[in-house]
Amino acid sequence: MTQVTQITCFGADSLLGVARENLLFSWLLASERRNVVQRQYRLQLALDTAFDELQFDSGWVLSDQSVNVPLSAFIPLSRTRYYFRVRVIDDAQQESAWSPAGWFETALQHAHEWKADWITPDRDDEPAESVYLLRRLFTAGKKVASARLYSSALGVYRLYLNGSPVGDDLFSPGWTSYDDHIQFQSADVTSLLVPGDNALGAMLGEGWFKGELTWLKKRELYGRRKALLAQLHLLFEDGEECLIVTDGEWRCCNGPILDSGFYAGETYDARREDPCWCSAHSAAEWQPVTVMGKQRYRLVPQISEPVRVTQTLTPVAFIRTDDGVIVDMGQNMVGRIRLRAELEEGQTITLRHAEVLDTSGKLYTDNLRNARQTVTYTARGGSAEYAPYFSFQGFRYVEITGLSHLNDESLSGAICGEVLHTDMMRTGEFSCSNPAINRLFDNIVWGQRGNFVDVPTDCPQRDERLGWTGDAQIFIRTAAYNYDVRRFFRKWLLSVAADQKPNGSVPVVVPNVLLDYISKIWGDETYTSSGWGDAAVICPWTVYQFYGDRQLLAEQYSSMKAWVNYIHSRGDDPWLWNTDFQFGDWLALDAEPDSYFGATPVYLVATAFYALSTRIVRDAAAALNLRSDERKYRLWHENIVAAFRRTFMREGEMIADTQTAHILPLAFGLLEGADRVNVAARLNQLVVEQDYHLTTGFLGTPWLCVALSENGYHDTAVKLACQESYPSWLFSVSQGATTVWEHWDGIKPDGSFWSENMNSFNHYAYGAIGEWFYRFVAGIDFAPDSVACGDIIFRPDLSGGSFTSAAASYRSVRGIIAIRWERHEEHARLWLTVPANARAVLRLADAQWSVLVDESDRKIRSLEDVGGAPGIALGSGEYHFSLGRQKGITVE
Ligand code: BGC
């Protein structure tokens, strides 16, 4: 019997504060039967859990859609909780029971519903503190039935009600292109209210809005004054409602945080703590705030999951030095140290954070450039507990001064590392028979965690931590396997579109805090580069492919199109991008000495990406039923491909003999027939000539193994991936890396470092090989036109290369997709899971495995022609196959 095991709205089964356009419902089906397909669904919305007060009933809808079903005709009320449920009829005409109910609650939906004013503690006539406390006292005279708090800030903030923190989100309201929109947060604070006197408090810091950003040390990029906006709705049991809002009644004062910045760290003096600050008993000197009024900011309900602490690490070693003690967390992590200790009054503890130690065992901080990453805590005496409020660091090692008197055991109890990042759901797991590859895979996941801190950043430690668009598009496919990044990218892409220039150019960082820096330094009028601006096209399309979010595609479509139109307007031939500054294959090893620019001609790279983005816009137009656009971009794509071949090939060979020049046309489908075969053969040769080493940079690397595996050179891809000597992915692993490095030789074989001006040890870009592990080693891949993971391709690597077993699972929007295989001399075993309402094809690259037995009925299955290639078509269900090499040999 088919059942609906879960229903979610915008990826969550309970969601407080959702925007109307994100009311998209998805559900998971489960059945003991194989080949289950949904034929009809019925979706309901009600005001109560019993579904008596029905608000919406779709009736039976003939449709197999189980992912992102919109409620087109339904207009929800503001600040209202709705319960939702669904039931389905499957292909056997069986009707399921109702799913368990989920709920969502709308937030304020219209500007006029905001009664609160923005208030600021910053004054024009005196320098502002970097963090203030703000507070409002109020009386709840009657019993409160429910209370909701809607709030935001120009800066970063934390709210407290009667001294208790409201929620566990960090760095709210998050980083968006503030001039276009700012997120607000919604919280259910009913349980924090007390009868009688109450106090609503806030800590307000500078954050991205006002604090220091970029290596150019820019401050106040979005405005001069930090500000708070809060609106508390109290609903009393007698039905009366009352509002507490930010207004002239609020008071502010300095708190214990003397200074706080993302790069700098935090300085905290506990002697300035007032434990009663968020109550009526506070002894602090409270000052009036300035009311700034309604302001022009466009407020949108929180889109992505918030940043939270997701894991706690304990130190693995202590290294005693003359300056104190260096604590080794065992993992290059992003977050903060929490300190818990008995301290004397006035005792100061300093924590300096770094990713690596130098050859003499000292903290290496040169690569942090201007980021101090230093936290200073002064105690008030007695039990102390502290972790920075508005700062995070990228580190594995922490040098602590002031605690050297503690022995290792006491230190271990006093220090823990709190890992923080956008709290996305983990969706992908991978492991294989090669332990070094497993460590690399873990490093890739850690790189994602450390750099998905509200926006996709290049690195989390130095004075950068910016939303580099190139890095995001390079990594997004791996990211989408590892974690559910749908909401994370939906949020960021709104800023991408907002920061796009009127001519369609997409800045190299979003939110664009470099403004026109790129134009000035490279002396042209563009703000962009190919491979970076293409994020505006590649990212929404990838989100659509993984999650089937058509809404997002529709919303980003004009930005996607504008980017391709922009490129079209740049070249002196409309089908080439052969002008303007280009990063090209950034940091490739075939660069001239001391250059960051790889040897692959930058206009070859630019035109290849032009073709890729145009093809995606064509496909997006088709998905959105925009027929004339589809025709237009089809034609454009054909012209670009022809111009690419004409310009960058001679007699069937690429004009540039670099690995990347061969990778991109193969990976982007720019070649056909003999050309494809020749170029693939040459790519293989180029890798073999380097004794199975890569020479690629940012743009070639992500596609290198994919291009080889897809074109008959999978063995070479495997040798490259398993290569341990420099340069290779595993070189950093052999050097003890726990995250992916920015440079193949961030630490050189002799222990010295790459130049300090750009040497991050936590850069996810080269971690883009993660996608290849899922697709071509364990073997969870998708058909090129698959939407929402509906068309799975299993391609286990049973070829006899270095892997003898592998496993991967992916929690798709349709349910779990899983594969596990083990290869022995004469037989192999394979386990597969296909979720309901999806279909799969099993492809076996190695023709030797000609006998396949389905262990459920011991019947032999043979490879058939599926879509023009040998394979086995599978519907949903669990499968266990035994494989033998040739007929006549018994498979166990
Ligand atoms: C960043 C990169 C980025 C690059 C652009 C660097 O400083 O860390 O990851 O994409 O600049 O060239």
UniProtKB/TrEMBL annotation:
Record's keyword terms, sorted: Hydrolase
Domain of life: Bacteria
Domain Alpha-L-rhamnosidase concanavalin-like residue range list: 322-413
GO molecular function: alpha-L-rhamnosidase activity
UniProt keyword annotation of Hydrolase present: yes
Catalysed reactions, semicolon-separated: Hydrolysis of terminal non-reducing alpha-L-rhamnose residues in alpha-L-rhamnosides
Protein name: alpha-L-rhamnosidase
Source organism: Samsonia erythrinae
UniProt lineage: Bacteria, Pseudomonadati, Pseudomonadota, Gammaproteobacteria, Enterobacterales
